[in-house]
Amino acid sequence: MPDIQLEFTDISNALVTPFTPHGLPQNKSDVPVDMALSGTVRSVDESLGLPQVQFSAEGAGNLRKVDLSGKVGLLKGATILAVEGSFVPETLDGEFDVVIPTILFTDGGVQPTTFSPALSEVKVENGTFSGHAEIKLEKGKPDGHGYINVDITDAIISDLPISGLAGRFFFQGVTAPTLPPGQSLKVKALDAGVPITDIELLFGAFLEQEQPVIDLRGAGLMITGGQISLRPDVFQILAKKQNIEIQVDKLDVKELFALIGRDDLSGTGRLSGQIPITIEDDHVVIKAGHLATEGPGVLQIRSQAIANALASGGEQVELLIKALQNFDYTELSLDIDKPLNGAAQVRLGISGANKDVLDGHPFRLNINLETRIEPLLDVLLKGQQISQGLISGFMKNR
Fold it and tell me: How far apart are CA 206 and CA 228, in angstroms?
């Protein structure tokens, strides 16, 4: 952990002297300790954003063993830490029970940014934060483990409204803490301009060459009636370039067309496949994303733009336009590409027929679609930026 310079003010202390008319005890281990201390402390380096807090501590015993208790609270009055334990001055050994009592986040009250500027983009309307740790000292060297629970009913994170957030985090170590695999973050719903529900992340985290590394064990969400998930992987969250593979499972065709801004397309069926994505700085690149239906269905195209593009093809094309109004497909696919500094390209591929046109003569057709897929990519990029911002803040303050 980095060195942090602290400034103590308003110090008040009371120490019962061990001197008596009979002098000190013959055994120095029996020298009594009885003290009380309180004051205010803040970080000298304001850029760390650590809050100014009040503290109080009491100790009683002797040099063989001192029983300690203490509290740390915000200047606003909320207790954020309570400690009880024992300490052996002669050997510098000790055991401490550390409790973060339930802290209430409310609109107009305590907010996450109270504790760190890295959380300035998090605005909680209603939620709680709590935790517990067991710390041991062996010859002055600390070690321990603990957990933190976060439950938020409603909040706004980087302008994205969320509801039903539940975080379960546990750590090992004190001077260089790690987050073993099994960390859990769930979000019931996220309003990103599209209906996203049942978000769930399972992961671990550790430092490698002073850089935070995420051990992703599971990540998924529900959208347009289907599931989107990330392939488990290990990666440096602060790297400028990230390669991820999105697994798509059973997205509803009709809802997906509406989601990408093609209300003039409709149909039945569900799409599955993979979309490889590279996030580099503030750009998203897609190479050879492919989604396909698992079986036959119906496609209905009532697009004047597509009709105008095909209109110059003569009578046969006019029949094709009519066939596409109620097309029984045997195959339907979407191929997705997006260059580094260009617009996303979506190509619809279909095979099938319309039994009422040309006696059900089969067609195979590829159609380039103009879509609004960029807002979806912006949501992905926003999530990446939020993760990097929180981790960056943690690294700065750790």
Answer: 26
